[in-house]
Amino acid sequence: MLPLSILITMVMLFSRDCITVMALKLCPKCGRIPVPYPLSTGPDCGDPWYKVRCIVGTLWLDAYNGSSYKITSVNPMTKTLIIRPPGLAKNTCMAADFGTQGIQLDEKLPFNITSANTVMIMNCSATVLQEYVALNCSSTSVCHDYIRGNPEAKANCGALPICCWYVTGGTMHTYRIRVRPERCSAYQSFVNLDMNLPVSKWPVPGLEIEWLSPREPECKLPDDCNDLVNSMCLPDLVNAGQRRCLCKRGFQWNSIQDVKCAQGRRCKNEKKKSIVGGKCQPL
Prior knowledge:
Elements: H1 4-19, E1 53-55, E2 58-62, E3 68-75, E4 80-83, E5 102-104, E6 111-113, E7 117-124, H2 126-131, H3 142-149, H4 151-157, E8 164-167, E9 176-178, E10 184-191, E11 207-211, E12 231-235, E13 243-247, E14 251-254, E15 260-263, E16 273-276, E17 279-282
Antiparallel strand pairs: 1-2, 2-3, 3-4, 4-11, 5-9, 6-11, 7-8, 7-10, 12-13, 14-15, 16-17
Keywords: Membrane, Signal, Transmembrane, Transmembrane helix
GO molecular function, one term: polysaccharide binding
Domain Wall-associated receptor kinase galacturonan-binding: 27-83
């Protein structure tokens, strides 16, 4: 039997490993797509609040309602990713994700739909004309051009009279592209669409989503901040009881490029302020 002193030492070492927080570790690529910080494909990299999944070289974003969408590109500079809408269910003018009422993001997570998307909604009821006057549902709208110019949409939705289009943005479309029987049953989305182009020249379908700028990594021990140079494990000034790797005085948290504490302007009245989240905050 091991001496008590050795057992105590082993327990202390084991306990320290268990509570150590991985302050900053980038996730590896998923196939050909980079996974920049803060996106996280596992518990040991990125920020778990920004969870995505890497399955056999394909990156996926999970929605609130149990559906998942393939991520086709990621841009860390604009903090955006593009997902591929699932299109139409086979031989019907209904979205393939109709069962989960379309794309619905969890409002508690740091993702939202940008204003760069143009959405075609098809197989709509007359109720839409009465309740959503902001939609363009005219007989000459670009939605009809899309149906006529896209073979799949034409075959499945061409005989249905009401289709509309809109550009995302505002509170109604911040977290969802919704389909349901009493409104519209199908949709398609395009990022940065130039509607002057013929449908045959439109980009592949996509929906642009952005993520909120992350806070500095959480920490418990000073060593947790070793990977974030020029930072210290200090009490979080926003959330009591938490500690984060806060940048030292004279440095600012940069979560977009290189993910580091970058040298920046020093706070005025430094004795009274500290830098949190890249901004000067009162102590």
